[in-house]
Amino acid sequence: MTAAPQEHATAPPAPTSLADQAYTAIQDRLIMLDIPPMAPIDDAALSSSLGVGRTPVREALKRLEVDRLVVAYPRRGTFATGVDITDLAYISEIRVQLEPLAARRAAEVAGSGMRTELAELAEATGGLDAGAVDRTELMRWDLRVHRAIYRAAGNPHLQDTLVRYHNLATRIHCLFLDRLAHVDRHVGEHAGLLRAIAAGEADTAETISRDHVTGFERAIRAVI
Prior knowledge:
This protein is mostly helical. Helix content is 67%, strand content 4%. 33% of the residues are buried.
């Protein structure tokens, strides 16, 4: 059994520019709620903590505003966006259409190298000892799995859209994380999805993906 997630070949390449590094780091803090919803964003403090200049941080914040993770108000400053539970239905409405599309497409078009990587990620996911892994790390594992599937689908526009909405869904997930009883089950569903994609089983992958998204929404609504 694996006690904690390990680095895997399906992880995205490390960002190169300082603005990319700042974007990735701040995005993680926002998604995982290390920067709480509605909290003011201090670009000077972020610059200091990340070890980069304020210009890369400001560039990153502009990108994060497009992602709906931060919002800027004239003369007031920049803030983390709120997490409004009414957004859950809107986000799920989009994801329930696009996540199954990405899963089906990945099963149909992924090359042999990507299929091998997804099969290995499936085994690693199935072997996670969820009880021994911090829940925040489980959420990061969830992000890794979904991003691997999006890349395997081979459509950069679909990938960009799904990354944005999955980030917003993950913020909602993190908001209720301590009240959810079966986070391990939610993450564990990924193993079957990844195996289906790796095996080229498009119909199965599409069904599992759709059930996964609808199950997520039901789980959140059950604890509201």
